[in-house]
Amino acid sequence: MTHLTLKNLSLWLALSFIFFYDASAQKDSQPDSLYFKKSMWIVKIAPTSLFTPETPTLQLGMEFMPAFTGRFSLAADYGIPTTVGKDENNKFDRLYDKSRAELRFYFTDFRREYESLFFLAFEGFHINYKYSTKNQSYVSSDGTSYGYEFARTTKTVEGFALKIGCVLRFKFPIWIELYGGPGVRYVNVVYSDFVNKGPDVFPALTSLFSDFDGSREGKFTKFHLALGAKISYRL
After folding, report:
1. What are the Cα distances from residue 99, in Å, to 120, 174, 181?
2. pLDDT digits (tens, 9 = 90+) for 170-181
3. Domain 6-234 is found in CATH 1.10.10
């Protein structure tokens, strides 16, 4: 099941309010020389999110551009888990979700009829990930290695990225969006609910690979690369 946080719910409620308020306010508006005069709502899906290692999602989103500007927009995405059961690393009882929000600036006026538009975006993201493991080992926050028969792991990831991208527009209202850019992610890993926790049999080996397989407990700052593609539909 999806782990819907209060933060995610508040974000989507705010976007829903803007949508209905904006739709009501535009009933009597008339077109002018601009390609688009009214505020725009753009529905998006990110097919690349389906191939994310370990935590693939069906990422759905919406972008809102007010009528008074053709250069700035707000967008939000929510990732729904697409896998259940065990993964290749024997993690089970997995629960995870992803949410993103961004402020976007277009270098050319989005309301005019251009075939392609380049943009700069500042993105913030939040990921919740919980899973269970059996007969494994880990490195605790104090640097000590332990083995266990069962444990529950909670991994929280928050961060931001500065992206540059391009929107390829066609005659019909389906567009292609490509983007990429660097960022930073803050990771917090917590182990709990142990069964038969004890000294690790191979502490040196556990410590060596803990940074690669996520078996090290604690808070970490890591490099993040935002890279992907989206398919958009203008409402």
Report:
1. 19, 23, 18
2. 877 889 999 999
3. no
